């Protein structure tokens, strides 16, 4: 079975977010890019599955939609252990456009499983995984926190309110994974880094696809109000502030 | 194909360097950055969460961290592939050392193992010794340590009294003696030990294994900083060392020790960059949270001055360290290609760059001390509390001015190396000094500033070099062979040389950056160069005057004074505004971002 991991190239989580002067686009100057943390967990789980010879995983491919600037992120995925990488040469515009590109790659490659992180840490859309399955006409399972093989069958666990459910699903399918799918993301080892440069990274042109949404403007959250410290013995003052200033009582 | 012109060690004093001949961190390639990321990830996931346990010297913890580093390949970054390493160049080694330098005591254990613990065997070992030890050191199966210092032999390493005597059957050397301040001693498996055979005047080197009978250890030293690193005294009581474990030739030990130290010194320059960037992150993040007078303290000019100066010192160290790394990398490649002993040829390249290595050791360690000291100050009372990490950075920093040769010894050997190269006509020190004196005689006031920002900086640096050359000539002629005893004057001259090297490195990086990114994108770096070169000129003038008034009289003194006045002149800089702009960018990003 071949596994396709959809990777989103996102700013490092400590990035100070800035927008262009007219607030219509993200200012990526000086940003350090990383593999979207949920996608990195998906990759880690795929590697764990492949490394266990009892599992029927033959190949792990990573794919992203982006400019050449996204290639270091793909190379890192290769260093962690993916066998090959594909970059769809396009600037991502909205979830539908990205999902269409990923679906085209998935449909082209005889993949049994398409893995996506539950969301990306930049735009947090949580839309791409479901859209891929819809465009491809294959099943999808969301909020997957466990992925294993049982006698050649895929068994997925999902977190549900107050518990878990186990589901089986016929390949090909899309699994949208969340925290818990793998232990800790892996550190790229020197050997992996050296091998990454020799692994194939294919660049494919974008498929025809529509964007249904367009960013009009971004806004930063209002700065937090200053914190007021109230002495632990002064409950009266605390009640007064909550009633009359914060107006929450 | 035309052979690429090689820069030689110390040459910066007598020649202009082209920006094409230096390396700047902006040129790190994708693979090098990925290696750096892995080092950073390792610190964040494996080291920082257990820093307190490391400092408490939890049994087995440091060793297990080194073993994990070995599994990831981080112990073998520069080891050749035939010994299970990854054969990366010296710049990559320096970059990984920089990143891992933020790792407090772990960084010390790592540096010791990968540097002085492994490289003597790699570079001076014979084929059998390399085959037996180097692969296992590269993968972390074995951990290395280095035993040079003795209770009575620190800076004067060659005065060590550890003895090696050939056994009657000629199969072993019997080693007796004591070594101290041995990093990684608590858990290392392999020790490079320096001892004198019979009544030799110079040291020889031996490879000793931990389980050889007769090796004993004192308990862990209680230290001011780097509390998590293992530091013990090691005793050798009639230790039988197989004769095949002699490293290099008889009597070659001191040379091995010195060359390994040259390498260690320049790598220390890289280590401190990582520590400094971490301390700056901690400082700005605290300043961006702490309020006084209803205002974040990061908004106060006094704090901005400190933050900016932390950045400038760190940036300047980075410019110089990577510049020297590239020159060394080229020298290593050239030396290995033209020699027949890869190990010795590599070490010969380090020996050539003794001046730059000492300069980086001194400047880098003192820059880090400045950064952590002001880091504590920015934290105020909290900086003095063990609750915050800045106190650990402060304590850990201090050792850098002591180990790998004290800064005092490094200052002296720096000038000594320049003078020796001058005497051997490798560098035309005296000839150019004579020209500088002639120029001063003919001078009528301060030279007119060159047109253009870069040209002006070039002129300042070129003039500052003339001050150094004049001092070297005047002091050599005055004291001749007794100059070696004039340590205050030598230290003054050394400080001038260090400032010139760093100032020029900052300017060279600016030139290269502007060629890559354009002037507009480098404005903040111009601020850094403006402040650094302006300050360096004042420092050089002060050191040079201190030296001059200590020995020069009559016409020589007049000429030196005139030279200092004219050649260290720089145009005024609004340092307050420049520092504020630098600090504002740091404050806005809330982390080191340059």
Provide structural commentary:
With 249 residues, chain A is α/β, with parallel strands linked by helices. Chain A has one domain (2-219): 3-Layer(aba) Sandwich (Rossmann fold). Chain A contains 6 helices and 11 strands. Chain A has helices at residues 37-51, 71-80, 95-108, 128-136, 190-196, 235-245, and strands at 2-6, 9-11, 33-35, 59-66, 84-89, 113-117, 140-150, 153-160, 163-168, 173-177, 201-205. In chain A, strands 9-8-7-10-6-1-4-5-11 form a 9-stranded mixed β-sheet, with helices on both faces. Chain A has a two-stranded antiparallel ribbon with strand order 2-3. In chain A, helix 2 (71-80) crosses helix 5 and helix 3 crosses helix 4. The longest helix of chain A has 15 residues, at 37-51. Chain A is globular. In chain A, 35% of the residues are buried. By secondary structure, chain B is an alpha+beta fold. Chain B has 4 domains: 11-143, Butyryl-Coa Dehydrogenase, subunit A, domain 1; 146-247, Butyryl-CoA Dehydrogenase, subunit A, domain 2; 253-408, Butyryl-CoA Dehydrogenase, subunit A, domain 3 (Up-down Bundle), CATH 1.20.140.10; 428-589, Butyryl-CoA Dehydrogenase, subunit A, domain 3 (Up-down Bundle), CATH 1.20.140. Chain B has 19 helices and 10 strands. Chain B has helices spanning 30-47, 51-55, 61-71, 90-100, 104-114, 119-124, 127-139, 253-287, 301-338, 342-352, 354-379, 390-397, 407-423, 429-442, 453-479, 487-517, 523-551, 554-567, 575-589; strands at residues 144-147, 163-166, 172-183, 190-197, 204-209, 215-217, 231-242, 246-247, 291-292, 295-296. In chain B, strands 1, 2, 3, 4, 5, 6, 7 and 8 form an 8-stranded mixed β-sheet that branches. In chain B, helix 4 (90-100) packs across helix 8, helix 14 packs across helix 15 and helix 17 runs antiparallel to helix 18. The longest helix of chain B is centred in the middle third of the chain and has 38 residues, at 301-338. Chain B is globular and about 75 Å long. The mean pLDDT of chain B is 94.
């Amino acid at each position: 079975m071949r596994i396709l991991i959809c990777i989103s190239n996102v700013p490092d989580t400590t990035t100070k977010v800035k927008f262009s002067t007219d607030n219509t686009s993200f200012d990526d100057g000086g940003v350090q890019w990383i593999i979207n943390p949920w996608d990195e967990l998906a990759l880690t789980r795929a590697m764990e599955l492949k490394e266990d010879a009892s599992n029927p995983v033959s190949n792990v491919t990573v794919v992203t939609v982006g400019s050449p600037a996204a290639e270091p992120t793909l190379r890192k995925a290769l260093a962690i252990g993916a066998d090959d990488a594909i970059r769809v040469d396009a600037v991502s515009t909205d979830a539908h456009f990205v999902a269409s590109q990923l679906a085209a790659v998935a449909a082209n490659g005889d993949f049994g499983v398409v893995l996506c992180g539950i969301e990306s840490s930049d735009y947090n859309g949580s839309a791409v995984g479901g859209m891929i399955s819809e465009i491809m006409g294959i099943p999808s399972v969301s909020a997957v926190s466990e992925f294993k093989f049982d006698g050649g069958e895929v068994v997925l666990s999902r977190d549900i309110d107050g518990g878990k459910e186990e589901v089986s699903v016929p390949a090909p399918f899309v699994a949208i994974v969340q925290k818990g799918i793998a232990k800790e993301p892996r550190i790229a080892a020197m050997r992996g880094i050296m091998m990454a440069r020799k692994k194939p990274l294919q660049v494919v042109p974008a498929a025809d696809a529509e964007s249904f949404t367009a960013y009009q403007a971004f806004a930063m959250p209002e700065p937090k109000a200053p914190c007021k410290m109230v002495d632990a013995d002064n409950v009266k003052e605390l009640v007064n502030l909550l009633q009359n200033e914060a107006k929450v009582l | 194909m035309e052979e690429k012109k090689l820069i030689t060690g110390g040459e910066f004093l007598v020649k202009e360097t082209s920006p094409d001949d230096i390396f700047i961190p902006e040129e790190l390639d994708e693979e090098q950055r990925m290696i750096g990321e892995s080092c950073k990830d390792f610190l964040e996931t494996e080291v920082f969460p257990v820093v307190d346990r490391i400092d408490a010297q939890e049994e087995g913890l440091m060793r297990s961290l080194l073993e994990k580093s070995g599994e990831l390949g981080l112990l073998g970054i520069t080891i050749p592939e035939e010994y299970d390493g990854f054969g990366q160049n010296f710049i990559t080694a320096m970059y990984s050392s920089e990143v891992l330098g933020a790792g407090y005591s772990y960084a010390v254990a790592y540096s010791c193992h990968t540097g002085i613990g492994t490289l003597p065997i790699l570079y001076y070992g014979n084929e059998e010794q390399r085959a037996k030890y180097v692969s296992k050191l590269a993968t972390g199966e074995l951990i290395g340590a280095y035993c040079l210092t003795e209770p009575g032999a620190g800076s004067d390493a060659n005065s060590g009294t550890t003895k090696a005597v050939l056994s009657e059957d000629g199969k072993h050397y019997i080693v007796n003696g004591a070594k101290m301040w041995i990093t990684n001693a608590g858990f290392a498996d392999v020790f490079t030990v320096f001892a004198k055979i019979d009544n030799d005047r110079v040291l020889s080197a031996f490879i000793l294994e931990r389980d050889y009978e007769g090796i004993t250890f004192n308990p862990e030293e209680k230290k001011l900083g780097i509390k998590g690193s293992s530091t013990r005294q090691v005793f050798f009581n009639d230790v039988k060392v197989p004769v095949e474990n002699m490293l290099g030739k008889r009597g070659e030990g001191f040379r091995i020790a010195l060359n390994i130290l040259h390498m260690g010194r320049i790598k220390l320059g890289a280590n401190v960059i990582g520590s400094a960037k971490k301390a700056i992150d901690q400082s700005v993040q605290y300043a961006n949270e702490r309020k006084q007078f209803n205002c974040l303290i990061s908004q106060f000019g006094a704090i901005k001055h400190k933050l900016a100066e932390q950045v400038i010192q760190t940036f300047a160290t980075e410019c110089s360290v990577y510049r020297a790394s590239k020159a060394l990398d080229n020298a290593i490649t050239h030396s290995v290609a033209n020699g027949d002993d890869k190990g010795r040829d590599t070490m010969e390249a380090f020996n050539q760059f003794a001046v730059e290595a000492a300069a980086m050791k001194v400047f880098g360690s003192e820059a880090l001390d400045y950064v952590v000291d002001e880091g504590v100050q920015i934290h105020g009372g909290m900086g003095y509390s063990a609750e915050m990490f800045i106190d650990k950075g402060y304590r850990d920093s201090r050792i850098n001015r002591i180990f790998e040769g004290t800064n005092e010894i490094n200052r002296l050997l720096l000038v000594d190396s320049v003078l020796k190269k001058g005497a051997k006509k490798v560098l035309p020190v005296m000839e150019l000094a004579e020209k500088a004196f002639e120029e001063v005689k003919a001078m009528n006031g301060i030279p007119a500033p060159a047109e253009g920002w870069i040209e002006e900086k070039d002129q300042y640096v070129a003039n500052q070099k003339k001050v150094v050359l004049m001092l070297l000539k005047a002091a050599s002629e005055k004291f001749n062979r007794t100059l070696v005893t004039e340590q205050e004057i030598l230290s003054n001259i050394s400080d001038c040389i260090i400032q010139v090297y760093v100032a020029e490195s900052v300017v060279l990086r600016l030139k290269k950056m502007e060629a890559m990114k354009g002037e507009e994108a480098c404005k903040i770096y111009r601020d850094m160069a403006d402040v650094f070169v302006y300050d360096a000129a004042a420092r050089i003038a002060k050191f040079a005057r201190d030296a001059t008034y200590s020995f020069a009289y009559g016409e020589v003194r007049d000429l030196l004074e005139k030279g200092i006045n004219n050649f260290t002149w720089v145009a005024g800089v609004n340092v307050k505004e420049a520092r504020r702009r630098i600090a504002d960018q740091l404050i806005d990003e809330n982390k080191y971002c340059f």
